Known about the structure:
The chain is an alpha/beta fold.
Amino acid sequence: MSGREELAEQLSSRLVGQAHAIAEIVPYVQMHRAGLGPEGRPAGVFLLLGPTGTGKTRTVEALADALHGSEKNLVRVDCGEFQMEHEIAKLIGAPPGYLGHRETLPMLTQQKLGAVTSEGSNLALVLFDEIEKAAPSMTRLLLGVLDKAVLRLGDNTSVNFERTHIFLTSNLGASAMRKEVLPDFGFGSAMAGTGEGTLRKLSSIGLGAVKRKFAPEFVNRIDAVVTYQPLDEDALEAILDHQIAALERHIAQRLEERAFTLELDPSARSFLLEKGTSREYGARELKRIILRRLTQPLAAMVEANLIPSGAVVQAAHGDADKLTLRVVD
Length: 329
Ligand SMILES: Nc1ncnc2c1ncn2[C@@H]1O[C@H](COP(=O)(O)OP(=O)(O)OP(=O)(O)O)[C@@H](O)[C@H]1O
Ligand SMILES: [Mg+2]
């Protein structure tokens, strides 16, 4: 298998239903690995658009996991924390001599970039989440980073971004996209189509919104604008499977000799899907629902010594608004 296919496969085992996003990003990783990345520019700049809970942030976490062995190996800048001009100093640090200079150590330093790389890869992943929320000076600052791969800090030193992939995420156009896929949004509304045609429409809505908000020189410096599509039922089911498998691994590894096997009845699956996923919020709530409806009740049973070692616990959904957990030997 080529490096490209291997990475694509690793990513698709973590990110469901957004194959086009993977296809856009992987060649840039490969270009960097081959030493053919651009000089004096970041190795890749991606703008991720689309509705909430469809996997934009997850994409960067999955890439961090694939490249560096941990989802946490990325620098994340939550742009919502930089809505005011003066807050930008948190990013780059205040110039020397300014009051409070010592307290405003920059968030983005060469060291921080180095700290999120690994033996396997020297590519640092930097995520600017929800860029539309940041103060305008953030865009100016980013412009320099995207253009020359250099960020000048308050103390006049500079950070080199050549060995980075920069991911910008935004909800720009997301409400118009939602109207496009859910014309008569409401409970029980039919699943609107996903697929090529929908994706094209959503992409053009997203790009339009981006062009209205950001200057052309900013948009021109982005290597790929990727629009995420709403997850269909199959994708949501696959995400549930992944998360249940993760819980099972957790049980096996953490509980060791007290470990047990989990069996989900189809009724339990549909209960979790119904509670944890929606066209509106995608898979955003699924983790929390699994935690509250399955992991926590299981933990209570473990605490009360109700599960003999090696037992099978069957989860089903009856009439009440919860799962019933039954131990079978
Ligand atoms: N395509 C996907 N594949 C696998 N898991 C997903 C996917 N989309 C969402 N999830 C699950 O839902 C959670 C939320 O997704 P994520 O944070 O990527 O949403 P987002 O697109 O960044 O939304 P927002 O615009 O609200 O930031 C993830 O942590 C993951 O558990
Ligand atoms: Mg996100």
